[in-house]
Amino acid sequence: MRNRTSPAPRTGATITAATALVLLATACSSGQADRGGQHGQDGEDTTPVVATSFAHAPKAYPLDAYKPTTQETETVNRAVDVLTRSCMKKFGVSLPAYEAPPGSIPANARKYGPTDLASVRVYGYKPPLPDGVTKQEAVAAQQKDAAREQAITPVAAAVYTGTAQKADKKNGTAAAEVPAGVPKGGCHGQAQRQALADRAADDLMTVQTLFVQASATTREDPATVALDKRWSACMRKSGMNYPDPLSAVDDSTWRTQRTSPNGPHPNFPAPSAKEIRTAEADVRCKSATDYVVIRHAVESGHQQRLIKEQADTLAAVKERKRRMVEKAESIVAADKAAR
């Protein structure tokens, strides 16, 4: 799902008015029944698949200070939603109710691949659910998201986006022109500007570009090269030949082996026994070589260099973020007080 601080795409007569939730899910393992989870309707497991998938994941990086946190992003999303609804009400249309995501995955959690044994024994190399989110909750959130999108009328979409909507015979929706008086970019575009969030996507891209640059120079750093060699040697002891952790994650075998269509989320199949064994060895070798801590330290150093080189640009990004979050908090607070 997309961040609500970014414009929603226009497809036919519909828009996505979804939450910022990213349902990164994968498959369950044969050991799930042994965890004694409670069951809801149709035998669905109503307990989280694993207690945590991120206990040993990389911690914060220097560049993270220039990006909104998960909570700050949620606050901005809510503020934009409040302003969008107020604007759309003037044109006699509305959106389905906004719902906060049931969970999120920590930033950078999978930067070097999986790091926790309990997680890979369930997911292998496939993306895990957020901690505490069950398969049932993930599926329900996805279904609600689809239902909300379907409930948006073509006229509401035109008001939201500020763009005329084409008829969609497949979905049975009519065309809709943009009503007179709708602001540039629609009510959503205006709401982003009012919440000082209209530059959020560009600023995030600026920071992400620096992340990519730091990662590239980190890979070539002699300390990383030596670290990868130690990790690779450890993997060979288990009969597995990969030059570095990300090559194991990207092994095409994990995308072609379809051992089961029924993982914790229908978008992902269950991992094979081979995938789980490989991921377990990967995590153990990361632990044996202190991979995450060392790689994090090396990459942080490269980020610090870029921060110094881009000091003026990043100072402006950080100040816009501060003002955006402060504005969003005031909008949300005012909305709560008015209820």
Provide an overview of this structure.
It is a single chain. The chain has one domain. Helix content is about 50%, strand content about 0%. The chain has helices at about 70-90, 115-125, 135-150, 155-160, 185-195, 200-220, 220-235, 245-250, 255, 275-290, 290-310, 310-339; strands spanning about 10, 15. It has a two-stranded antiparallel ribbon. Strand 1 and strand 2 (about 15) form a beta hairpin. Helix 1 (about 70-90) crosses helix 5 (about 185-195) and helix 6 crosses helix 12. Mean pLDDT is about 85; it is low at about 1-45. Keywords: Signal. This is Lipoprotein.
Amino- and carboxy-terminal Cα gap: 28 Å
Kindly name the structural category: mainly alpha
Query: What can be said about the biggest beta sheet?
Result: 2 strands, antiparallel
Mean pLDDT: 85
Low-confidence stretches: 1-46
What's the gyration radius in Å? 23 Å
Helix fraction by DSSP (H/I, runs of at least 4): 40-55%
Across the major sheet, the strand order is: 1-2
Q: Which series of helices and strands comes N to C?
A: EEHHHHHHHHHHHH
Give the beta-strand count. Answer: 2
**Basic shape:** globular
Total helical elements: 12
Bin the strand percentage.
Answer: under 5%
State the domain count: 1
